[in-house]
Fold these 2 entries.
Entry 1:
Amino acid sequence: GAGVSQSPSNKVTEKGKDVELRCDPISGHTALYWYRQSLGQGLEFLIYFQGNSAPDKSGLPSDRFSAERTGGSVSTLTIQRTQQEDSAVYLCASSGGWQTYEQYFGPGTRLTVT
Amino acid sequence: AQSVAQPEDQVNVAEGNPLTVKCTYSVSGNPYLFWYVQYPNRGLQFLLKYITGDNLVKGSYGFEAEFNKSQTSFHLKKPSALVSDSALYFCAVRGNNAGNMLTFGGGTRLMVKP
């Protein structure tokens, strides 16, 4: 079946611009996660959505970062007023829910802030 | 707080030889442990997990891992390495009483030489 998809695969933006990154989880998966992968920081958790519960935003690095998940499916991660330190690969993952432990990752969006 | 350590940045092994990639963890409560593999310009691919039960778990592509509670370790192993196993390997943990987010180790690059 189809896996997790993300778009765009690459995004180059100027410092100060806003960007939106999209994630389509595996159909039927109730949990969705965003992570960031960078050379200096490794893999970091950003935000987690589970069903209709309030998202866990504990990993968001600043208030410039936000995410939403519409209709329990597609998610958008928004970074406002991008900074060079935001350059990273943003990975989305989904899982089948509370009792399904492994997460399945998308290919990622490589964000470069110039 | 939970954490994962992968003490080796790189592991070199000859094709056909056994390989081990080390991982130790720290977490409150019982750990849920995972190994993922990342090929160049790709997302993370799930290899195997330990949730409960037998300490030796088997996963994809002939990989296995052994959970050792007393040593808080979850080393990844394969009896006979292939050149195609060359990739970046990540160990991850979550606690059973924490949010679903994964905490990743820094990754270990496995190089299998012909």
Entry 2:
Amino acid sequence: GAGVSQSPRYKVAKRGQDVALRCDPISGHVSLFWYQQALGQGPEFLTYFQNEAQLDKSGLPSDRFFAERPEGSVSTLKIQRTQQEDSAVYLCASSSNPTGLGEQYFGPGTRLTVT
Amino acid sequence: AQSVSQHNHHVILSEAASLELGCNYSYGGTVNLFWYVQYPGQHLQLLLKYFSGDPLVKGIKGFEAEFIKSKFSFNLRKPSVQWSDTAEYFCAVKLIDSSYKLIFGSGTRLLVRP
């Protein structure tokens, strides 16, 4: 079946621009996660949704980062007034487990480059 | 803060050599443990996981890992690597507490020479 998809796959933004990154999880998956992966590092947790409820946003690095999942399926990660340090790969993962445990299925990521 | 350490950032092996990648975590409570792999040009995928029970877990493609609670370790092993095992390997820990996040190590790039 279809896996997690993300769009766009690549995004170049000028410093100060706003960007929106989309994640389509596996159909029926309750849990959705966003991660940020800087070059040469492992993914770092940003936020977690259980259906449409954002239960954990402790990893969002600043108030310029905002995520939503209004209907409990597709999610959007928005970054306002992008900065060079925002350049990274943004990964989305989904899971059928409603408690956040269990296997997470990852998408291909969106590579954001801020110039 | 809780963290996951992967000791080797780059490993180069010849085919048929044995592999062991180290992973240590810092957390005194209950954890779930994972190894993820990212092959060139592909996305992260699960290699194996430990939740409870037998501390020696077997995953796909002949990989296994051993959870040693006293050492806070979850090392990945394969007796004989293949060229197709060339990839980046990430250890990850899920704390069984009120948080939801996976904590990843910084990864180990494995290159297997034919």
